[in-house]
Design brief:
- The structure holds three protein chains of three kinds.
- Chain B is mostly helical.
- Chain B has a single domain, classed as 3 helical TM bundles of succinate and fumarate reductases (Up-down Bundle), CATH 1.20.1300.
- Chain B has five helices and two strands; from the N terminus they run ααααββα.
- Chain B has a two-stranded antiparallel ribbon with strand order 1-2.
- Chain B is flat.
- In chain C, helix 2 packs parallel to helix 6 and helix 6 packs across helix 9.
- The chains are: A mainly alpha, B mainly alpha, C alpha+beta.
- The interface between A and C is medium-sized, with 13 and 18 residues.
Chain lengths: ~110, ~130, ~250
């Protein structure tokens, strides 16, 4: 039995799980308030653009989105298996490609801000 | 030793329906679908931010309305369940030994909930 | 002295005779149970008074030998630790442990588990080659505490009966075997971790686990195999990064 290559994905899954556990609920509250038109002043283009323009802001945004993507992708791979689908290699390619696409888009957008 | 052992089959698609413990596990696992979807929402927000104030306003307009609210409420439920289930098992995955004894699990879990509250406050206050 | 309280309990037991049956079937027995009885007492009553053909494993009757694992109302339990008074409805379903082939009645084949347990080298592989004349291996209380919990496993296999990944992926090494590897890896006297990782760090090893946690929930000795497996994942991941990012470092 050869040693698995799962550690690379599991490490990202664990990091992402931790980060999303701490920050995502509050982030969702922010977008929920925006969707409910609650407190219109808070969601100004200028303030968010300024944060994303700041080098540390870029790093934080990239970090959060990166680990969220790879956490969800790896868990999705396992969940699809739990639902009875037996095509792990193909499923892995699909979910990790999705995470890869998200990563690439984030990089592109952040570099444009 | 007998030559005819009987193997009981388990359904690979409905196995989790047989016990509340497995149902809770699957509920925890499917939170990843919501987190994945939400992360792409954030990426869309980032994209519109990069395209300028008009594009960003378009994004906000699309977010407003019943579907936007429903989506965020669903994600909120999923992500809170993820956080709770994640924090609760941390002492099992990363036990801390101080001297001879291990730090009690409820202290580790409590500390996580505390940090969660602080981080959430920072994000909300900054967002406001 | 008060009257001994007795309650008539219906035990629905899964029977299977490999010589005559093509499939298992349920047989119901009506058993007069004392208040303090466990399911094992009811089974012994059946065997002594109602049906001597009923086959099941048991030994110590005190939850230390690990022999009497079975499904009681769908839950993996030691029959000697399943108290009748917990089942107020008066009807109890008793089946052999899930995820193992049935040999006869409540007796399952444990061969797969034994093979897997042996494969993780569940014995001390001393770090240093020390002759007996050089004296004992010394260990502080803190070093002992680090692995003590995982020594409590009685190999009852309830964790395997509860684990859905073992149910769905029979190649999975499983909770108890990996926890036993962890028990030795955590032992300060041991130096065999690398040898065990060949089996433990494979796809069919720890990486089949998805932290359902059912194993720890059903463990009668509070070993917490789920915790052990997550700790093995963390250690294996750190290993992986060390191997790939710092290949020049000798372990």
């Amino acid at each position: 039995m050869a040693k698995s290559n799962k550690p690379i994905f599991w490490g990202l899954f664990a990091a992402g799980g931790t980060v999303t556990a701490f920050v995502t609920p509050a982030l969702v509250l922010v977008t929920l308030f925006a969707a409910m038109r609650f407190n219109m002043d808070m969601f100004t283009y200028e303030s968010i653009h300024a944060f994303a323009g700041w080098w540390l802001g870029k790093l934080i945004i990239f970090g959060i989105i990166l680990v969220s993507l790879w956490h969800a992708a790896h868990r999705l791979r396992v969940t699809v298996h739990d639902f009875g689908v037996r095509a792990d290699k193909q499923v892995a390619i699909v979910v990790y490609s999705l995470a890869g696409l998200g990563t690439l888009l984030t990089l592109i957008y952040l570099l444009r801000i | 030793m007998n030559s005819k052992p009987y193997v009981r089959e388990v359904s690979k698609t409905t196995w989790f329906l047989s016990h509340p413990r497995y149902q809770r596990y699957m509920a925890r696992e499917v939170t990843c679908i919501f987190i994945m979807a939400y992360t792409f929402l954030l990426i869309c927000a980032l994209g519109s931010l990069a395209d300028g104030p008009d594009a960003f306003q378009e994004f906000l307009n699309a977010l407003r309305g019943p579907w936007g609210v429903l989506f965020n409420v669903a994600v909120l439920a999923a992500t809170v369940y993820h956080s709770a289930t994640w924090f609760n098992v941390t002492p099992q995955a990363m036990p801390i030994q101080r001297g001879e004894e291990f730090v009690p699990g409820h202290l580790i879990v409590g500390a996580h909930y505390g940090v969660w509250a602080v981080v959430s406050l920072i994000i909300l206050v900054w967002g406001m | 002295m008060s009257e001994l309280q007795k309650r008539q309990i219906q035990l629905e037991v899964l029977r299977y005779n490999p010589e005559t049956d093509t499939a298992p079937r349920y047989q119901t027995y009506s058993v007069p149970c004392l208040e303090e009885w466990v399911v094992l007492d009811a089974l012994n009553y059946i065997k002594d008074h109602l049906d001597p053909t009923l086959s099941y494993r048991w030994s110590c009757h005190m939850a230390v030998c690990g022999s009497c694992g079975m499904m009681v109302n769908g839950e993996p339990k030691l029959a000697c630790k399943a108290f009748i008074h917990e089942y107020q409805e008066g009807q109890i379903k008793v089946e052999p442990m899930a995820n193992f082939p049935i040999e006869r009645d409540l007796v399952t084949s444990v061969e797969d588990f034994i093979t897997k347990l042996a494969s993780v080298k569940p014995y001390l592989i001393p770090k240093e080659d020390k002759p007996v004349s050089a004296g004992e291996f010394k260990q502080t209380p803190a070093e002992l505490k680090k692995f003590k919990q995982y020594t409590l496993c009685i190999n009852c296999m309830l964790c395997y009966a509860a684990c859905p990944q073992y149910a769905l992926v029979p190649e999975f090494l499983g909770p108890a075997a990996i926890s036993m590897a962890h028990r030795y890896n955590q032992d300060s006297r041991d130096g065999g971790r690398d040898q065990r990782q060949e089996v433990v760090a494979s796809d069919e090893g720890v990486w089949e686990c998805s932290f359902v946690g059912a194993c720890s929930e059903v463990c009668p000795k509070h070993v917490d195999p789920a915790g052990a497996l997550q700790q093995v994942k963390v250690a294996s991941t750190i290993d992986w990064y060390k191997e790939h990012l710092m290949p020049w470092m000798k372990r």
